[in-house]
Amino acid sequence: MLDWSDTPYWLAFGLLGNAVFFSRFLVQWLASEWAQESVVPVAFWYLSLVGSLILLIYAIHIENLVFTLAFLPNGFVYLRNLSLIRNKRAREAATAD
């Protein structure tokens, strides 16, 4: 059964997290369609990070251990991917000079 007993603000916050997290799939799909091949744009990782953080905060708020553990490690993976992208771009910029 769905639990709607939380305050409207917290429910809106949790729904916002779901919307941001879901939007990353739309961004990835549209980028892949545009490129006519499977690609993962940088925006995917930022949306993943923000959506996951919002959902982690909400999971902690509702005191759900499973939900909390599902989103707790995600930020490290997303930050690492963003770091790898930044490092690659820096290397490419250095070789272009």
Model description:
With 97 residues, this protein is mainly α. It has one domain. The chain has 4 helices and no strands. It is elongated and about 60 Å long. The model has no long low-confidence stretch (mean pLDDT 94).
Unreliable stretches covering 5 or more consecutive residues: none
The biggest sheet amounts to: none
Helix-and-strand structural type:
mainly alpha
What is the radius of gyration? 17 Å
Task: Estimate what percentage of residues fall within beta strands.
Answer: under 5%
Please report the number of helical segments: 4
Q: Tell me the helix content.
A: over 70%
Shape: elongated
Return the domain count. 1
Q: If you average the pLDDT, what whole number results?
A: 94
What is the number of beta strands?
0
Highlighted features:
97 residues; mainly alpha; 4 helices; 80% helix
Secondary-structure topology with pairs:
Layout: H1 8-35, H2 42-61, H3 65-71, H4 74-96
Short structural summary:
The protein is mostly helical and 97 residues long.
